[in-house]
Amino acid sequence: MNSFNLSLAALCCVVVVLGGLPFSSNAQLDNSFYRDTCPNVHSIVREVLRNVSKTDPRILASLIRLHFHDCFVQGCDASILLNTTSTITSEQTAFGNNNSIRGLDVVNQIKTAVENACPNTVSCADILALAAEISSVLANGPDWKVPLGRRDSLTANLTLANINLPSPAFNLTQLKSNFDNQGLDATDLVALSGAHTIGRGQCRFFVDRLYNFSNTGNPDPTLNTTYLQTLRTICPNGGPGSTLTDLDPATPDTFDSAYYSNLRIQKGLFRSDQVLSSTSGADTIAIVNSFNNNQTLFFEAFKASMIKMSRIKVLTGSQGEIRKQCNFVNGNSGLATKVTRESSEDGIVSSY
């Protein structure tokens, strides 16, 4: 507990020291980066998302997740947005993305609006970071000053996406290792997992917990028995794997701390959720309990962890480029063939 309390005390200054951390070695980001070149970029992104979320409230969770899936594969460089071409193999077909990521069309809407106001100025990577923050706010979650100045990658990495995106079936050891590889610690893991307070999950990614957990022929013993029966009704054995259910059965479209209350009563939808609270002796238990008891503490930790994540291996200065279209590198759109359909699901192969 002492080490956890120290880590919480450090949250108030984490933003100040981030620039010197090894995972942001090339990052010269500034939340006022577009002050002179595109001063209205935040309001432009917000207006598009506000309109889209009126008819598709799930888009807010989807865009937070899209930013996460970008940053965990060769850094926050918008590589997830690239379609397959003669020289690029898209990350969109990775196990953690295929038929589950959503919001690519909305990102393109935002890019078009931004280009109309500020041509050749704002990167797609920065648009993803801004969209994640604005999505949190529109879902009644926290706001933060987004560090800006990222540039877009010239390539994608399908192999790395298959390796780096965490699975909903991961145990705590696997999750910690996965996050540690990105320079993120246990507090970041628990805080970023709190994004599951909004959004939906597909049956196929947790149905084994309901009927045949770890090939035992029995349900996951860490799953609340009443919740188990509810989920079995939604996801019958052998039923359609694409059926959706709420990640947070309490307040599914409101960004709050109910996710942690759910974990304490064994109502985490994915194994990778529940292990944060149900792994015997884990340091994450104290963090879950603290966030459950203090929503303000969760919000502050989430903000700090999102900023920290958004700095992973960013391209700045003359690195990469500012794409004119988010799905293609500049000058290559004519060779591109889109290989991934926009999914109507935001169920998750990766659990974040």
Automatic annotation (TrEMBL):
Name any cofactors this protein relies on: Ca(2+); heme b
Residues that bind heme b:
196
Q: What class of enzyme is it?
A: oxidoreductase
Catalytic activity annotated for this protein? 2 a phenolic donor + H2O2 = 2 a phenolic radical donor + 2 H2O
TM helices/strands, residue ranges: none
Highest taxon listed in the record's lineage: Eukaryota
- Which residues catalyse the reaction? 69 (proton acceptor)
Q: What is this protein called?
A: Peroxidase
Q: Which organism is it from?
A: Medicago truncatula (Barrel medic)
Q: What is the lineage of its organism?
A: Eukaryota, Viridiplantae, Streptophyta, Embryophyta, Tracheophyta
